[in-house]
Amino acid sequence: MKVICTKGCNKQFEKPIFKEKKLKEDIREIYFKCPHCGVKYTCFYTDREIRKLQALQRKTKDVKEFDKLKEKVTNKMNKLKENMKK
Ligand SMILES: [Zn+2]
C-alpha cells in the first residue's frame, strides 16, 4: 500500500504503520503518521460494539454472514466518525 502525504509534505511512503489510540472509555482511533513530516491521518474509529462485530467477521467462514457483518461495521464506523466530528 502506497500513500501520498496529501495533507503535509506530498512525499510518498509505503506501508503506513497503523496505531491505536484510546480516546474515551471504549472508543479508539486508528491512525497513521507520515514518516517524513509527521502529519496524522485518521483511518477510522472503533467502539466496543464495532470490535465485537469485527471479531465475528474474522471468525465466520460464511460469505453471506461476512458481508452482513461488514455492512454493519461500515455503518457503525460512519456513524461513529460523524459523532467524533461534533
Ligand atoms: Zn508528510
Helix content: 40-55%
Largest sheet report:
3 strands, antiparallel
The Cα radius of gyration reads: 15 Å
Category from helices, strands and their pairing: alpha+beta
Protein name: Transglycosylase
Structural description of this entry:
With 86 residues, this protein is an alpha+beta fold. The chain has 2 domains: 1-22 and 29-45, no CATH class; 47-86. Helix content is 41%, strand content 27%. It contains 2 helices and 5 strands, in the order E-E-E-E-E-H-H. It has helices at residues 48-59, 63-85; strands at 2-4, 12-14, 19-22, 28-33, 40-46. The strands form 2 sheets. The chain has a 3-stranded antiparallel β-sheet. A two-stranded antiparallel ribbon has the order 1-2. Helix 1 runs antiparallel to helix 2 (63-85). The chain is globular, with a radius of gyration of 15 Å. Zinc ion binds next to loops.
